[in-house]
Each structure stands twice: as structure tokens, then as C-alpha cells.
Amino acid sequence: MTAEGLIYLDDVVLITAVVRRGLADGVVEAAVDAGAQGGTVSYGTGVGHRERLGIMGLAVDVEREIVYVLVRREDEAAVFAAMAAAEGLDRPGRGLLYTTPVERLVAYGSKPAKGAKQP
Prior knowledge:
The chain is α+β, with helices and mostly antiparallel strands and 119 residues long. The chain has a single domain (7-104), classed as 2-Layer Sandwich (Alpha-Beta Plaits). The protein has three helices and six strands. The longest helix is centred in the N-terminal third of the chain and has 10 residues, at 24-33. The mean pLDDT is 84.
């Protein structure tokens, strides 16, 4: 890989969604429809007071899907709002979203993305 094929960005935000199992596909689809290039989904297990005790002795589903979406800062508000509206995340227990600033990002690409900087 040469520096010629690398794309450098410094105006990037990571949007992370932690959602109930089965909701990740809808969240990623909403992000893409709002302008994101795609997303990454991983799986995890939630740990908390309710999950340990269960409700009335019943086991509580603690499996979670974690969605990671990298977007340019100028697209952050639209993608975040679309992800928040997807899959009923406005209801309790469905999930949460948060953003993390990304200082620098480098990726291989055939052509520079809008706003990309070269070293």
C-alpha cells in the first residue's frame, strides 16, 4: 500500500449505538439512508441490576448488539438523528447512542472522499 491510495480525514465522529439483540440491522440501515457509508456490528452482553435479578424471577435478555458508524462531522447530526429514530430507540430499554470525536482516520481508497486531506 502506498500513500497514494490512502485517504486521511481529521473531521470524523464515531457514533456508537448499543441496542437490544435484533435491532442493529435497522439502525445501520437508517444510518446509511442518512448518509453514512456503512457500519460495523459486534455483539455483547449487558450487565446491570435488572439483568442480574430478573423481573419477578424471570431471566432478562442481556444480549446486545453494538453498532459503530464513522461519519464526517458535517453529517453527524443527520445520521445521529436517523439512528435515534430507528427501531423505536425512543422507548425505554431499546438502546442508547453516543458520539466520540475521532482525532484522525486513515483508510485505503481508490479516490479521495469529499474533504479528504493528503499527507
